[in-house]
Amino acid sequence: MLDLLKRAVDEFVQAGTGAGPDTGGATGLTGAGPGAAGYVEIRYHRRLQTVINVRNGILKRAEQRTLAGAAVRCLVDGSWGFISTSDVSEEGLRRALAEARAAARLAAALRQEKVILAPAPMGKGEFFSGVPAPAAAGAAGPAEPSLDQKIRYFMQAEEKLRKFSSLIAGSNVQYTEYRDTKFIVNTDGAAAHLEDCKRSVHILATALREGERETGQSNWGVTGAWEDLLAKQDVDQAIAHAADLAIKKLDAGHPKGGVYTVVLDPGLVGVLAHEAIGHTVEADFVLSGSVVKGKIGQKVASDLVTLVDDGTVAGAAGEVLVDDEGVQGRRTVIIENGVLKSYLHNRESAHLLGAEPHGNARAFTYRDEPIIRMTNTFILPGEDRLEDMLAGIQDGYYLKDLGQGGQADATAEFMFSVAEAYRIKDGQIGEMVKGVTISGQAFDVLQSVDAVSGELEFKMGAGHCGKWQPAKVDGGGPHIRCRVTVGGR
Amino acid sequence: MTEDMQKALDLCESWVEKGRRRGADAIEVYFRKVRALDARFEKNDLQVPKGDDYQGVGIRVVRNGRLGFSATNVLDEQSLQETLQAALEIAAASPADPNLMLPEPGPAAPTPVEGISDPSGASLTLEDAIRKGQAFLQAARDFDGRVTLDSLSFAAEVETRAIASSTGIRAAENRTLFQCAGMGFARDGEDVSSFDMAMAASCRLADVRPEELGRDLAQRVVRSLGARTVPSFVGTVVLHPLAAVDLVVGTLEHAASAESTQNEMSPWKGKLGQTVASTLLTVVDDPRIPGGAGSTAFDREGMVPARLEILRGGVLQSFLHNTYTARKEGLRASNGRAVGTDQGTPGVGVHNLSIEPGDVPLEAMIRGIRRGLIVNRYSGSADPVSGDFSGVVKGGIYVDNGAAAYPVKEVMIAGNIYQLLRQVAALSAEVGVYGSYRIPYIQLEDVTVTGK
Prior knowledge:
heterodimer; A: seven-stranded mixed β-sheet; B: alpha+beta; PmbA/TldD fold; 13-stranded mixed β-sheet; 10 helices; globular
């Protein structure tokens, strides 16, 4: 496939040389601009997705689906054209290339700000994430279970959840697996073959008593093999946690709203890092006027806070070794000791803002164009101990994991529901409360951080981030102590 | 029947036949082909014009009372054989369930719905889509130069879908869909307004009017500049139709879904014929609204849906069923509420959901409020199981003594949606159409508003 894509690009570039109004090296700084055709990129992406969902004793869904095709992007006179197609024959690719160029030419006449791509180290060769490299296959660990075995495994898990207690009235267990094969070729030198496998489990328990319902959940995800998924989180413990949480919430009261000192667990730290901070530093949002525009070099958080995005963290669900523009993944230090250091870029924004792209241009399927996305976003560990952090709180809350949802926008104002919350009184963890939300301005919250614990955990790998298209991401960090507005009743 | 529809049906029928020969007791093949165009703008400028050609097939088989499903968008013989094989293997690995049956055709054959295949869709070019997007942008910027369109898209789809099954289901349909949505904010120096959005969707191109949407969005974000904080209070809240879509509609759909009741996830379980909401509330799902974004002649299983009353005067009239949920409750057939695409097994959902309007003009509604809040958009959690919600008010307007006084910021609302549905004080005569939803302004009493 890589050869087919290379041939299609070469042929297209050669055929376009010296002809048409788009001559003139649209790639600008890229150096390797191929004249008339401008910049051209083809990405073949085949995804085999498996979903197993067991609910209330019934195998609700066991599905396998293939989604495969090619995406072509052309940059002509500083404007993009994008065509996706499921026809990956030579003829199909030729047609897609021609249509993408036509779309780019059309846009070139209308677009005001011309695109120039920043140079970047391109991915070349083979990249394996969550999948053993072929050379290592002989020495690999346990074999992948068959679909039949996986179905039985999750049916048994759901049964354990359902029978955990007579109060459990709803039980839902879902397994999702993405096996991706990608080939990326562009006229700036990318020629990459990627194999990637990401898996996740969602466990949702509903407890019912006298008409009142509460839910509890355990979710986790990895880039990795089957055994990596099970090593990340013991399934029986996850079941007990979800069921126990749902049942305990039946007896929990609501918190009294107000501004409190709280300890956030790595799950909520990840949500804060990703949702509330991470999106505001995505360079497309920065250019639209997000709250951090023009603030590079400024103090935006407590000295204790260093926040990074890193697609090379092995095993985290946002692992991206080469992005969908063909750029190699690297760590980006967003905030270092409280000072804003960098935004997250694709090649286009990196040129505009004089930065280097670190592999944050991502597309969910072949039908999506690469846009600026996070990978694994987290706060680096500090030196405090969780016990000491809790002990220092007179009247506050210990808050764990994201609940039913949340939201944040370009002003970094956020609101997240909390899955599990406990009152802290005189340094002691007290009763559970439910229906808790936290809100505030994320940078104000980070300014208020006065303690950061020493461990590092990724806890956001189960779900997807949404921004026009989904993306598998991860996030986490240590525990942090800070001030937030706690919403209740 | 057009040539595209016939070709699609032929493909489905040939694989139904192959599936039977391979040992499926029952088989359903669902086909979908889409040509999509999308002109996207960001930061007030054109970004990436996109085109996509997609076709895919989903195969559902039943063998010995066991169900298997597999899908592919690679439609060569080998890939389809593998997909059929995967569906059969999944069926073999799955437990038997007597309710897993494919539907029999109903008494009435599907008849075309007016206005869901707009001939102008087939001839719409990427250039036309770009012009439509530009019109939105221009209208917003002309309204006020402080407005920034963070993102904006004009998209068009021309779709053919078909379904055939061994139980005699046979249906095909051409549809067009035009969607325009923009999200933006206003910035005046350091003062940044709330993000807000404007959107429309219809099968008819003429129903999606980008200029109107651009002006509407601009007006909303400019109005929320200079926002102030307000102290907490318990009082009246008026939900803009878009806020109602964010806050109420998902929970209504969830509560009415037979999947939810059967999973013990809906508080409406066992309450057919009982009052579950204010007597002002009548909620209807009508799949045959001419040009409606969710209008269709047949559902994901090929069944013909009729207009369905979910609530009438607050009394629960019916649940939403696909074939599986219907059989589970001993019903003869579904009510045509199977939803989904070729890439998955049918779920349960609505086609075009409406909350019927009241008779109070919005102006009069606001005049009658001593102290309250107009919520333009809601952003936060809404747990459809318990009904608990808590979130941030976007673009909120404080109402003081019967008049819209000033925009507010850092305001949260919290409570329980099921309880709120019983606290509806009035519904406006005006109706907002957002995608496939038709919703009036909803006036609610005794809502907890947390300010500063």
